[in-house]
Amino acid sequence: MDNTRHFFSRTEPLFEQLINEREMLNEIKFDRRRFLGSTFKALGTAELIMMGVVNMDFINQNSINGMASNHGKNTSSNSIKQIDAGVLNVGYIKAGPADGPAVILLHGWPYDIQSFIEVTPILAEKGYRVIVPYLRGFGTTRFLSDDTFRNGQQSVIAVDIIALMDSLKIEKAILAGFDWGARTANIIAALWPERCKALVSVSGYLIGNQKLGKIPLQPAAELQWWYQYYFATERGQAGYDKYRHDFAKLIWQIASPRWNFDDATFNRSAVSFENPDHVAIVIHNYRWRLGLVEGEAKYDDFEKRLAESPVITVPTITLEGDANGAPHPDAGVYEKKFSGKYSHRIIKGGIGHNLPQEAPKAFADSIIEVDGYRN
Predict the structure, then answer these.
(1) What three-state secondary structure class fits 175?
(2) For residue range 169-204, what is the model confidence (pLDDT) as tens digits?
(3) If residue 317 lies in a helix (H) or strand (E), which one and from where to where?
(4) Residues 101 and 370: beta-carbon distance below 8 Å
(5) Which of 37, 91, 306, 315 sits 20 to 30 Å CA-CA off 263?
(6) Structure confidence at residue 78 (pLDDT)
(7) What pTM does this model have?
(8) Domains of the chain by range and CATH?
(9) Which residues of 127-172 form beta strands (DSSP E)?
(10) Which of 13, 143, 165 is nearest to 79 (CA)?
């Protein structure tokens, strides 16, 4: 193991334990895996780190249980990759055949690529080339220059993904995401429809603008956005920086009240919030929405076009969990914003805001389905 791989094995969830299990079958005997599975049940991450089991820090129990199966015959190596794209060096996972139809999965806040840990192998098995990047301010994604403004406005994140597609030589992809990721996918579909084959968007149409962000809401609705107003203060920025782990877990609990995630599941994502730019990006994002801070002038044209709430023309499926505790619009409000072939569905079973991780099969099935849509 080289030093780079060793570093990532300490800090990043090992997707290959779930996706590229054939490789693991060649390396680890079943009896040893069964022993490790029992060990992971009994010991926490901290104990394992102290024991020196650094290359398996964040394996989840699903990975252990699934090792005897055979996923992804044609999957590429899916450890964390890094590539320069625009102003960033982007960390990402790839899986599936290199010549398969591209799917880009986009996470939100406060989440990370772990949201797609079970979606990814389903799509790879179906022959898709799956790319799962860390957004700016998350995980191993870094700015190439210390001088670059740590901008979190909505259009810049979409520009990041277009730059990533260019670097990976992906001309067109199915885009799917939730929260920030859904908004980013919406924006790409609206501004660069030639780069978006189809769209799967949790909570529908999420393109916003600063003018709308200044309009007062009913008190009950304002209460749902409490963290946004907290972030508008210096106390809020300091508080999020100091308590980002506890803060993120609280958001998970509020946004997905019926999802009984365990500490290990949360901790696998929480490590991504230690990114040195995380707090700056998150705070700027929410302050920008309220019009409290400026973005960058070079993105003004994009924001002007987005402020007109452009119609999305690509084939689209929108999803909503039946127990989403996060602020989200009703489907009837946005259905006319999609002019191509379109469908909406409610995913039942106590599914909250982090829909891809809570209902991975439903999310993956929607991607496969929308790929068959034709305008």
Answers:
(1) strand
(2) 999 999 999 999 999 999 999 999 999 999 999 999
(3) strand 316-321
(4) no
(5) 91
(6) 53
(7) 0.82
(8) 86-375 (3.40.50.1820)
(9) 129-133, 142-143
(10) 13
